[in-house]
Each structure stands twice: as structure tokens, then as C-alpha cells.
Amino acid sequence: xxxxxxxxxxxxxxxxxxxxxxxxxxxxxxxxxxxxxxxxxxxxxxxxxxxxxxxxxxxxxxxxxxxxxxxxxxxxxxxxxxxxxxxxxxxxxxxxxxxxxxxxxxxxxxxxxxxxxxxxxxxxxxxxxxxxxxxxxxxxxxxxxxxxxxxxxxxxxxxxxxxxxxxxxxxxxxxxxxxxxxxxxxxxxxxxxxxxxxxxxxxxxxxxxxxxxxxxxxxxxxxxxxxxxxxxxxxxxxxxxxxxxxxxxxxxxxxxxxxxxxxxxxxxxxxxxxxxxxxxxxxxxxxxxxxxxxxxxxxxxxxxxxxxxxxxxxxxxxxxxxxx
Length: 324
Description:
Blueprint: H1 2-20, H2 29-45, H3 53-64, H4 76-100, E1 107-111, E2 121-124, H5 129-133, H6 137-158, H7 167-181, H8 231-256, H9 258-271, E3 273-275, H10 276-285, H11 293-297, H12 305-322
Antiparallel strand pairs: 1-2, 1-3
Helix pairs in contact: 2-3, 4-6, 4-9, 4-10, 6-7, 6-8, 7-8
């Protein structure tokens, strides 16, 4: 009976830990149970005495994206491009949160392990629901900077020799900028779609809203063309101007933190995966305008030995908490 009670207590502690770390958002009870089962298998493979946060993160990736594609081995140049793009995206998020107190999602972890249909990925922590229900112009512009961070990082490190590694982020940035100008009318002058009603909505499911902001590519069922036939050219020009303006700000931001950017890329290439806490640690150790020569003076620029020592102490504490 004592063994059963101990097992129930451990499961309850683990469930509370998963809830505190935000993995419950949008997941049903059965899905959470599947997550914990997968995390337990990952912990056994890693020879852990208890399920750790890293095991849960790996389980989330396996259930949402897919298992690692061990057979696919990118060359060093390909790994550098992917690492630069993902680090630029994540680092931009952390920097504008620090400098401008931006309401954008912080990075949870980065991985350049090919997984499922993706070659790399950045996982962000979700904000509270109200942030998405009533997004304001500054928040959307900051998110636009994050989406442009990958291409900006390539320019800072490689110059104009950019690649198509950031193409998906650029597509999202284009649609977001276009919606800021047209659908939400957050840029002056406002876009005039025509006399009432400028658009006709298709009837859809009648009931409570099931989403928050709707998909980035949702056209809001606006199916009739505008009265102003020159509007498309005007919107294209204004979208281009908005993206160029935010891109310039992002490049300037990453140039001021060039050393931190290079350090993060080197660490990611060494480890293949890294967490948002490691990014914060690097930003603390390499403040703005730190000369890049400091990296050359380090014996191993791709190492975070002191951070790993601190994390080791944290993991020992986590073991003890989960086993209580």
C-alpha cells in the first residue's frame, strides 16, 4: 500500500510540474497522459532516475514534430546556416524583451537536430491568452522583428551572402506586415476597402470562438475584391516599407550584440540543442558592443562550462524535488 501511495504522490508531483511549465495549454487529459508516458520512455533511454524537464521537452518534440532523423546528416555549412537563422530569431526575441520590455514570446529552446519534416526549430513559450486577444501595434511590430531576426543574423555574420534558410520566417513576416496594414488597419493612413460593405463574409460555424488570434494566413473570409483597384500596388509598397524599416532595426540590434550572436551560434553548433536560459546567460556575459576578439581569446568558444556546472547543481535539486 505504501508503494502505491508513493507512486501516486510522484505522479501528482510530476503532473503539477508539467502544469507549471505550461505544457497543458491546449492539451487534453489523454494527450497529457501520452506526454508523460513518452517522457518516461525518454528518461529511461537517458538513464535518468526521474523524469526531468529535458525529458519532457524531448517528449513534446517527438509528439508534435516527430522523432529525430538520425540518417540525415547536414554538412558543416548547412548546420552553420540553420544555426545562424534559428539563433537570430531566438536572440532577437530575448533582446527586445530585455531592452524594450516587449510582449513577445521568449525562446524555450533551439534545436538543429533534423526532426520530422523540419531541419531545425525554435520553440517559444506561449504568453497568456489576453496578450493574443488584444494584441497592440507595438507587440505586433516586435513580433515582426522576431520573424526577421533569422535573415538579419545571416547578414550580420555572412554579409549579403544570405541563403534561403530563413524563407519560412520571411513568408510569415510578409503576411503579418500585410495584415497590420490592411486587416487590422494599424498603420496610417488607414486602408479604405470601399463603401459599405466592402467585403462579404461567408457564413461559417455559429458558436463560441475556438481560437484566439486566428491563423496567420487567415483571410477572415474576405472574398470580394476591393473597389479601389490600385490598392494592391499601394499595399505592396507600404508592406515593403514596413518590412524594410523593421529589418533595419533588427540588423542594427544584432550588430550591437555581434559577439553574443557569434557565441550562441558556436554553442548551438557544439551542443545541437540549447535552452532559453543559456541564451540569457550568454547575453549577461557578453554585453552590447563586446569586441569579437574576446571569443578568440577563449580556449573553447563553443563551451558553456560554467553554465553547465550551475545546471548540474539545479538538476540535482530537481531530482530531490521530484523524488519527494
